[in-house]
Amino acid sequence: MQVEQAPQNRLKAKVTSAQTAVASYQSVNSKVSAYKSAASALTQLGTWRAISATSSSSSVAVSTSTNLSATTGSLTFDVTSLASKQATTMKVTTFEDADNDGTLDTTPAQLTSAPDTISITTTAGKQYDIDISKDKSAAGIAKAINDSDAGVSAYVMKTSSSEGVLQLTGRKSGASNGFTLTGLDGLGVGGTSPETTEAKSATIEVEGGGTSTYTVTSDTNTFTGLMNGVTLTVSKKENDVTIDVNNDTGAIADKMQAFVDAANASLTEISTQTAYDPSTKTGSPLTGDFSVRDISTKILGSISLGLDWSEEAAGGADVTDKIKSLKNLGIELQQDGQLKFSRSEFLNAYATNPDKVKEAGQKLGTQIEKLTTTMTTNLKSVITGRNNEIDSLTTQISNWDIRLAAKKLALQKQYSNLEVSLGNLKNQSTWLAGQLAGLG
Which residue numbers delimit the Flagellar hook-associated protein 2 N-terminal domain (predicted)? Predict the structure, then answer.
């Protein structure tokens, strides 16, 4: 059977080789796709409009987000109030939990005099009627409020053996999230009328032109929209807080570094997958594949040749003053075939002429994105072809399984018949030997 299985074994070896090649192609494609993504990032306006912000006060936190409308500038203001939630409290008569039901008890007289329904009305005018008929104890009322959708939390805090405080707190801060409580003024739970600390919004007074100021409020201590792409969070009252927002050149340089790193990762992966060791005469899965080596050649060529403004020139644009060499962006090709990015050179160039560097950076991203799109398309096509080849080989191997099983069965039957024939011959030989012995 080993001889019969030889063709199938050769097919299996081809499958293993093809699978190894597919894994290598996929690895190269992954690196080139990452390079494409890094190039695409350079084409985005948001990359070149990154901002950073600083606050003059440790009590005012500032964060930024990248968007097309992000602006730079300075803002000075006073924090005049902080956002708070409404708190409404009332003293109530409570007793020990004599019946062990988990609530503080009230007297029967208080149970009968308390109303069956209380109401919470929001600042926006929406009224929530809350049924407390099942349990008119202070704890029962608190539970009914917590179970409602009124946006209010309630709990009873025991202050002595017979007294406590029923406290209602708004779940959201800000003047627009206040509420009024009705139905408990009649001392239905044996307490005093409610006392309220109103909800407040955070307020800042922003310095305008000259001596003018304007007020900005927020239901929370966080302010958005004062400057596009900037969010402020205040934590205490304070005067003369200044926020400075500037272009985040460091973030832009990070994108350029990521671009160079992705290019080097692609070049390294291609080198690994196509390497050949002459001392051991062993190759890698893609050794000898010109199409993969050509990817490396084109990546290096795109860097050494620099930016191509021919399309713009053909359209009538003046390209004489455009950046052409990538060295002017801090990118340089080294002798070892890797790229090097000089952060300082890039930042100096950007500081000198940000518009020209931005234009060149976007042009670079567009050129490489177009180049790598073709590369990944071709790699995916090769991977698909190899996978189809594997499927075909796998089908052939399965067919050989059927063929070999039939061959094995035929051989087993043949050998079984031979054993029977040999047994008959042995019997005849024994008989003949006996006959010959009798003749003697």
Answer: 1-86
